[in-house]
Design goal:
Blueprint (H helix, E strand, L loop, with lengths): L2 H4 L3 E8 L23 H10 L5 E4 L3 H14 L6 E2 L23 H6 L14 H18 L4 E6 L1 H12 L3 H4 L9 E7 L6 E9 L3
Parallel strand pairs: 1-4, 2-3, 2-4
Antiparallel strand pairs: 1-5, 5-6
């Protein structure tokens, strides 16, 4: 981290994965608008206590992200309407959305997909690499628009992996190795100075405490 970079402002990103979805185990959710389980008030209380006040809030268009954001904001006592940000949507799994992984066990297309899951696209869908590029562009845009602020983004596992990978300079293949659990936080700092922005990873997959 250069001295020039350290002289600039710090934009702090707080990535939160939404609450668990209410769906059969192993379902391929993708961009299907599935509801989430917000019944664990103690976990939501602990998570909200970890988040900053007066932040810029964003969420994806899917109800599981918007509803989780609303539950956390209510606990913070902040009457804020999160900015809806399509750039941070989950990967589009196309024809496979709504299926469970077992449905694809004998599918040769699925077998070929898993040979290169970062760069292959599901039928009618999008590759993880393409989604990661959208996430990186959205991060850079919002970091410029809200420089020096805290930004809370309630999103999904795939985009949060991509956000951490963007900060670390990982390839899409390596991003897929990251674990992102529901109602956990990933904390990233973007530091702007005289040269290119640099990133500091303050925490990955932090549990409510």
């Amino acid at each position: 981290m250069t001295g020039a970079a350290m002289t600039g402002g710090v934009t702090r990103w707080w990535w939160v994965r939404h609450a668990p979805i209410l769906a059969p185990p192993g379902i391929i959710a993708g961009r299907a608008d599935l509801p989430c389980d917000l019944s664990d008030g103690a976990v939501l209380d602990a998570l909200a206590a970890m988040l900053p006040r007066g932040a810029v809030w964003t969420a994806t268009p899917l109800s599981r992200a918007r509803d989780t954001a609303g539950a956390l904001l209510a606990r913070l006592g902040e009457a804020v309407e999160p900015r809806i940000e399509p750039a941070f949507l989950e990967q589009d799994f196309g024809d496979w959305q709504g299926l469970v992984h077992g449905d694809l066990a004998d599918d040769p297309v699925a077998a070929a997909f898993w040979m290169a899951p970062a760069t292959n696209a599901p039928p009618g869908g999008q590759s993880f690499a393409a989604m990661a590029a959208d996430v990186a562009a959205g991060i850079d845009r919002l970091s410029a628009a809200h420089a020096g602020r805290d930004i809370v983004c309630v999103a999904h596992a795939g985009p949060i992996r991509a956000a951490v990978g963007h900060a670390l300079g990982l390839s899409p293949e390596r991003m897929l190795a990251l674990v992102v659990d529901c109602l956990h936080i990933c904390r990233l700092d973007r530091i702007d100075g005289e040269g290119p922005a640099v990133w500091r990873v303050a925490g990955v997959n932090l549990p409510p405490r």
